[in-house]
């Protein structure tokens, strides 16, 4: 017979014993991802309740606290103010900028919190390993937001894989999308590797992790090529100005900030997500115009301080001889990832929603529709965001650690593959793991 738990507790202390109250959750970093995850959690008030937030921007923190009913004393600018009070929740969601993950994760782990950590774990291998070590030392359950593991599409791919025999090779494409790349990796927070992390880690650690999850074997060797091809000063059109707002080319340029953010404001859709980010959530003509005139998101893409690579290929060899080729590129529509998996008895092709299985013997193709489209963050990663939060909350509320599919140990391992691939790109070598 199981018993209820009544105080702040960790998952490891009540495995198999459901809580008789909602899980209490603190949020560190209430930007786009932190706010989105908290909003999903708000769907299940009987299972989880946001009780604290640490966010340095008043204009972001105050509406967040109001939305989730966070008491004033628990709505603070710095996460250290929360840790200074001792443990005030069961779990914490850490969604700060990439470079700011290690310190809060280690501090909250020491206080016994279970942790949901936005990807990437950290910008460098040493910090990523250190977070893994902090989890092992304290016994904290640390789950990483590798949302692709949690989609119905991924579960179905793994279910269907045996039908094509043994996996021999994989071809995988991440089409980042031209305006998404311009927003995040030319004008935005991930434009510089010294301020965030390399593009492969920031954008595609999902994909490297997903490939390992699907193939089910460790990587033994990696090579990579790529660079910053287009978003460079020498490619700037002759008439272009430093800001799109007063540029004579703003209505014809493929990367016009005025077009992107005003479309998002006026017409909604996926572009509204990016408009909301650039205005810190204020969706008005005045806020958009002010951000275009003064903020980083109003700059010409050829006049930014960016160095993030806009295209990269990665080749991986797995234990046992299977291989994978991965392409990450900015120069696409914003659409689902595309994958072909080549097996000894057939081929599986997927586009993030539809899965086609071709059988060599019968020469027939079976099509499965997983029913959810839209694999970008703006679209909830084809249900991955919601399933991640549901799994994390249910694991803690029901005492079921098996619901966590992206634990810190395996996530550190897949991050190490990313770091190896990036080292291979920078040095022109083949890296053995």
From TrEMBL:
Q: Which residues form the Gfo/Idh/MocA-like oxidoreductase N-terminal domain?
A: 25-145
Q: Which domain of life is it from?
A: Bacteria
Residue ranges annotated for the Gfo/Idh/MocA-like oxidoreductase C-terminal domain, each copy included: 163-433
The Gene Ontology terms for molecular function here are: nucleotide binding
As for family, the record states: Belongs to the Gfo/Idh/MocA family.
- Mind telling me what this protein is named? Oxidoreductase family, NAD-binding Rossmann fold
